[in-house]
## 1
Amino acid sequence: MPENMGNGTQLASKIEEQLKEPEEFRVILLNDDYTTMDFVVEVLMHIFHKSLEDATRIMLDVHLKGRGMVGIYTYDIALTKADQVHSLARQNEFPLRCLVEKV
């Protein structure tokens, strides 16, 4: 509601904006029969900046369970990382795939 400042000027009351946290998305690597374990570890370290230990653990999840969660990101970052994985895999002639799914 406008406030009267005494000189005829009206100022709008401060309107509080409700800020909403951005939605989160998981990036998940999928197992296949052709991509090497070493390449998966390399991808995890290069694209997702995982340590050797974390990359190895995630790679084993992918290998043994069929999929492994790499991280949780905002939508744009998750899609960018998925595109980077697919691009690097194609360049190295591997069928490695990953999914982006809403948390």
Note: The chain has one domain: 24-102.
## 2
Amino acid sequence: MNKFLFRAAIGLLMAFFGAITYFTNDVQNPVTGERQRVQLSPRQEIVLGLQARDQMGSKYGGLYPSQSIQQYVDRVGERVVNGSAAKQAGYPFEFHLLRDPETVNAFALPGGQVFITAGLLRRLNSEAQLAAVLGHESGHVVGRHAAEHLAKQQFGRSLVTAVGVATSDDRGGGQQAALIAQAVNQVVGLRYGRSDELESDRLGFRFMTEAGYDPRGIVEVMQILGAARKGEAPPEFLSSHPNPENRVQKLQALIAQNYPNGVPANLVSGRDEFAKNVSGG
């Protein structure tokens, strides 16, 4: 067998075993109940998110300098997670407010790292809206969207090996370090698809309402972003979070379905609380 045929045979074998690995890694999500093809374990997702956290933050100017506003974002995020089914996923969520005042964006890394920019925060005007943003991003984590995308890209085999080494010991040297760096770059640049965004809308709605927040906050967030879109440059949130024309309508229908007699008065909007904690920061 010549070298070309030998290499082709090896390539076919690798493709075959890669496909077998992908299609046989079928697990059930404990929160959504969905069957998913992922190759990372939850622990490996956590490690990968921590590896990428600083790089993601540095893209947006680092952490916001006000500790009091960061603590407020923490409190709202923790209420959303600890008061809802998101807690069942077992991820150690961390919420980060980033310094960038111009970029209007929020995003999540696998394993529980959630970010919101100052540029987006300053457009909000209620705690329910903040809870909606953090709940939506937590939905990406709980939905394991990044892990699904990495598996689909057939990047998972080397990624799992590299992250597995990182979670167990320090062996593996430069090759594993290079693979980790490649994995970090993959997740930092990841863009979710429309189905992921719609699922995160539903999960964000679920998490924020289970935590006691007024679900109209998530509709208001989409309306705020839609209005911002009419400016000179659309918010980055809308480029990295595909926005179907009927997205607001879907959320309004979800509210009507869950609250046919109207939204209960005891669900928190938190406009005064938000103003007290964020204004002047």
Note: The radius of gyration is 20 Å.
## 3
Amino acid sequence: MNNKIKTPAVDLLFEAILNLKSPEECYIFFEDVCTINELLSLSQRFEVAKMLREQKTYLEIAEQTGASTATISRVNRSLNYGNDGYDMVFARMKSTAKDK
């Protein structure tokens, strides 16, 4: 875990996020907390990560998401050398989808 971001304020934010119960509640909360561009950037990076895990090429990803190659490269670095957060969430989403 990155101690640079572990602060009481970040703990409080994550506690708030964990209390959201539906996608609609997420929209309401995140539209208040983030600018539209911040939210779109976060969602774009998540989509890029998903496509990288699906073995899509940088060109395919750039064309479909509008992400720059620099953004795709940063996300790829996180996937390969980060904390495995993307993979943890992808695995849970896959498990949840199987349960439905």
Note: Helices lie at 8-18, 23-33, 36-53, 58-65, 69-81, 85-99.
## 4
Amino acid sequence: MSVENVKSSNFDQEVLQNDKPVLVDFYADWCGPCKMLAPVIDEVATEYEGKVKIVKVNVDENQDLAGEYGVMSIPTLVFFKNGEAVDNVGGFMPKKQLTAKIEENI
């Protein structure tokens, strides 16, 4: 399953109005740790399909969203529940750490 890219134009619909918990990966194409995290995110998206929606936001193309959610460094993962940002974590993390963080937030 590929992780969908979300933009400012469809962020409300895809993230804030979603009835499932949503994990948003704020990233940039030039970011080394983001590239390392991408396959982990893809793997986790497949495992949690139906339970958690996982999307990516390119901070270069959507600076307004990065600013709104206080993204100061990338990658930053922000967890949303019922339209609210409930948790966030920055930097690369191994799959085991990421799945533990997801379990905390669903």
Note: The chain has a mean pLDDT of 96.
